[in-house]
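Sequence in, structure out.
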Amino acid sequence: MTPFYKVSGAGNDFIALVEPPAAPSTGEVRAWCRRGLSLGADGLFLLERAGPGAARMTYWNADGGKAALCLNGTRCAARLAFELGWAEADGRLTVETGAGPFSARRLGPAEILVEVPPLAAAPEAREVEVDGRRHRGWAVTVGVPHFVLEQPDSIADAPVATLGGALRRHPAFGAGGTNVDFAHFGAPAGIDRPARLEVRSFERGVEAETLACGTGVLAAVAAGLAAGRLALPAEAATRGGFVLTVDGEADGGLPRRWSLAGDARIVARGEISPGASALPAAPWA
């Protein structure tokens, strides 16, 4: 039996293992994240103590592949580390990831903020052809690659499954592919209000739309800043119904210091039984 926590960051849900005797196999990650037949999750992370006020997070997508970064996962890892008493006495906590260390702090009982390093490169305007139609967007790397497309009207009808799925593995993004985000830039920032946007994401490794994507929200905000459509702070509404807040400073449309904050909750804890790893073969190809 394997002890686990189930956690959720604005709708992105994860299985968390705290200092297990051994890392899970690729097959176990795939099986445990399978919805309907096992626990079900967008991904899994292993959390270890890494010294005073520090935790180390190793992250796998639902398909069993490791990923350098999942920001909602990082916020959930921080929430769990806070609950385990791993933070410094002054509340400081660092979460080490495959994309580098992230400072985290609590804003409330279930609200976690992580500080995000500056982008290594500005968003790149790009056109990609799918089925004879060209789609304009921005290629942005926020620890992992994203392609952001603007939805001028309602995001409710965005072709996340169809176009998102086609762009996710498009040759233009190399062998690793990309995450795909559909963003609607709403009300601009005012004196007493943040800018508003809506974001839906097709995540690689999950191979489907998720209820939220932290790096996708940041990629959409970066694209909006580069296009002159947004200013910081900005509030992003996600499919799960939660709002993620992006704050910081931008220089010439390029974020230089920014953060991501929002809901991060511990849903349950328990033990994974051997049956959770026993999945049937697909009945047809």
